[in-house]
Amino acid sequence: MKKGDVVTLMTLAGEIIGRVAESDYETITLTAPRLFVQTDEGAGFARGVCMTGAGYPAELVFRQNQILSVVPTDDELSEDWSAVTSDVEVPATSEIAL
Asked: What is the pLDDT of residues 54-70, one digit of tens each?
């Protein structure tokens, strides 16, 4: 795991996906962290990492002693996370004018 990697934190609260900003023996800082959730309609990303916290946090610090494991995020989920947290709007279809 290195700075810039998109990772999944396995915690007792669930799986949190974000980009590594900093990491040391005590903490890991993620940018744009999102809790991965499963609903009746399917899976997706919550507005943040807890129900009562501010939505769409830019960055959060997690204590290493509260994390069960840190794993690389699945490529497809990493792309989905990037699309959800990016300010860039991607068109639904590609059109090239000639």
From this structure: 899 999 999 999 999 99
On whether the CB atoms of residues 62 and 28 are closer than 8 A, the answer is: yes
Residue identified by tokens 């934190």 is: 9
21 exposure class (CB count in 10 Å sphere: 0-12, 13-18, 19+): middle
- Give me the numbers of helices (H) and strands (E) for the chain, helices first please: 1, 6
pLDDT of residue 51: 83
DSSP single-letter state for residue 51: S
The model's pTM: 0.83
CA 56 to chain CA centroid, Å, is 10
Q: How many CB atoms lie within 10 A of CB 48?
A: 18
Residue 37: which residues within 8 A CB-CB, separation 6 or more? 14, 43, 44, 45, 46
pLDDT above 70 covers what percent of the chain?
89
